[in-house]
Amino acid sequence: MKIQIINGPNLNLLGKREPEVYGKKSFDEYFQVLTEAFAQHEIIYFQSNSEGAIIDKIHEVGFDVDGIVLNAGAYTHTSLAIADAISAVSCPVIEVHISNVHAREAYRQHSYLAKNCLGVISGFGLESYRLAIQGLELN
């Protein structure tokens, strides 16, 4: 399988940003662990703080990869444009969150993306990405 991971705003600061919520490991460190655990798959990583760049990446890969693992960060709760991009492509998308968004502020408990995704995984730390890849394997 070819799997695209897309991380949204502020996720480039993992390991530094609010470690009590998001942990102490950078995504680059975790990505190495993830690619070793799923060596049978081609896993590609992209991160942007820009909504437009995330949409462009979904359009670019959404017809060619076997699945997208998307952590859109705060755009999850605000972006109809990313939701529309997900619905426009043919590959399945799994929405992931490192923290349990349903145990946080009320505004984080709504996702504009979820209805267009195969599933949503939330609250398992960085392991949410591993669970998402396993979900794509089952699809």
TrEMBL record:
Enumerate the active-site residues: 22 (proton acceptor), 97 (proton donor)
Q: Which reaction does it catalyse?
A: 3-dehydroquinate = 3-dehydroshikimate + H2O
Q: GO molecular function: any one? A: 3-dehydroquinate dehydratase activity
Site annotation (Transition state stabilizer): which residues? Answer: 17
Key words of the record: Amino-acid biosynthesis, Aromatic amino acid biosynthesis, Lyase
Q: In which pathway does it act?
A: Metabolic intermediate biosynthesis; chorismate biosynthesis; chorismate from D-erythrose 4-phosphate and phosphoenolpyruvate: step 3/7
Question: What is the top EC class of this enzyme, as a single word?
Answer: lyase
Q: Which domain of life is it from?
A: Bacteria
* EC numbers, comma separated: 4.2.1.10
Q: Which residues bind substrate?
A: 71, 77, 84, 98-99, 108
Similarity section: Belongs to the type-II 3-dehydroquinase family.
Q: What binding partners and quaternary form does the record give?
A: Homododecamer.
**Annotated function:** Catalyzes a trans-dehydration via an enolate intermediate.
Write down what this protein is called. Answer: 3-dehydroquinate dehydratase
Organism of origin: Albibacterium profundi
Name the gene that codes for it.
aroQ
